[in-house]
Amino acid sequence: MQFGMTLEITQLHIKNMVCPRCVMVVRQAFEQIGVEPLSVDLGEVKLKKELSGDELKQLDDLLAKNGFERIDDRKVQLLEKIKTLVIDTIHHRDPYDTHIQWSVYLSDQLHYDYNYLSSLFSGMAGITLEQYIIRQKMEKVKEFLFYDELSVKEIAYKMGFSSVAHLSNQFKKIIGLSPTEFKKSVQHTQSRKPLDQII
Amino acid sequence: MESAQVNIKGMVCSRCIYTIRESLQKAGMFVRDISLGEVTFCKPIDDPQKTTVRSILSGLGFELVSDKRETRFLEIREFIHQWIAAGSGREQGVTLSESLSRHFMQNYDTLSELFSQMEGKSIEKYHIEKRIEVVKESLVYTGKSLSQIAYERGYSSAHHLSAQFKKVTGLNPSHFKQIQRSKGLIVPDHSNEKV
């Protein structure tokens, strides 16, 4: 928390934001209730002043219509922040940092001990944080396979796997098909998942 | 009924689907179906419509997958042209495949597959044919000897050049030169880009 000049700024936390279009849609929701946010980022909106009860209700309705949810529980907020960091790191950074140490990175960013973050995550999400990270990575691999621009070997290299075999094994464990089988399957467009529905 | 499909890069969630549907419909496009990475239109789209789609998508931060492939293909082709102009690696002592994969930081097989799909012939074949075109010009327009041309164009020997020339054109280089000279005109192949 900052004090002084910024004392008036309010933050709202919003669940399920995963990409620039989510930012756009959330911004539109605020416009519709006649509020101009200071900033809209993945999972977080900054406002000049607090919203009235009426405005909040309108906002919640608009958000719900688009598959979002405003959250005020601190633990839920933290859970969502973890997810947003994972999604952002895996899906929106090019090139992907293949040397990332998740435990160090997440605790640095969120100022909590990794053990705490990890147990909070598995308690609330029902899968471990490691598992969540793997699933997000596999979703990214699916996306690459879908574009058909890189070979499996190149994808493995790009996403920091030690070998094609390593990637293939993990992919098969999560998806049930090998990357090559997945690429061949005709229906693969249907099998990509929205990033906010990975768990 | 006929339909048309485009593949889109960067779609990751239901809001992506929502914003694309919204914007396309506002532009008067008839969208039948949208899933992550793919839009199906009710009927085929023509070039102006494709331009509209492209600009709508790029405004939303997306990209057409086919554009990406097309761009990469053109880059590869341009690289080959420059490679030939620079003597097909005669000074560097590296192969075309090595320098391509180094330049694009991609597996040669991937580049090769893309190129063959777009051009309808392999990189090797394309390179050989384009290089022979340059040799033809040198034969007719300069007084250079065959071994000198072979050296300049990166062939290991005049014999090698001669053999490849015959394979591609069906003629010996000297015979080719003779015909062209006697006719007093040359019909260079301008059907493709100049090398």
Q: Which oligomerization state do the chains in this entry correspond to?
A: heterodimer
Query: Between the first and last Cα atoms of chain B, what is the distance in angstroms?
Result: 44 Å
Q: What is the 3D form of chain B?
A: elongated
Number of helices of chain B: 9
Distance between the termini of chain A: 31 Å
Biggest interface, and residues per chain? A-B, 27 and 25 residues
Overview of the molecule:
The complex is a heterodimer of chains A (199) and B (195). Chain A has 199 residues and is α+β, with helices and mostly antiparallel strands. Helix content of chain A is 55%, strand content 8%. Chain A contains 9 helices and 4 strands. Chain A has helices at residues 20-32, 53-65, 74-91, 102-110, 114-125, 129-147, 152-158, 164-175, 179-184, and strands at 10-15, 39-41, 44-47, 69-71. In chain A, a hairpin with a 2-residue loop joins strand 2 (39-41) and strand 3 (44-47). In chain A, helix 3 crosses helix 5 and helix 6 crosses helix 8. The longest helix of chain A has 19 residues, at 129-147. The radius of gyration of chain A is 19 Å and the shape is globular. By secondary structure, chain B is an alpha+beta fold. Chain B is built from 9 helices and 4 strands; from the N terminus they run E-H-E-E-H-E-H-H-H-H-H-H-H. Chain B has helices at residues 14-26, 47-59, 65-85, 96-104, 108-119, 123-141, 146-152, 158-169, 173-183, and strands at 4-9, 31-35, 38-41, 63-64. The A-B interface holds A 16, 18-22, 24-25, 66-67, 91, 143, 146-151, 153-154, 189-190, 192-196 and B 7, 9-10, 12-16, 18-19, 35-38, 60-61, 65, 68-69, 72, 106-107, 109-110, 114.
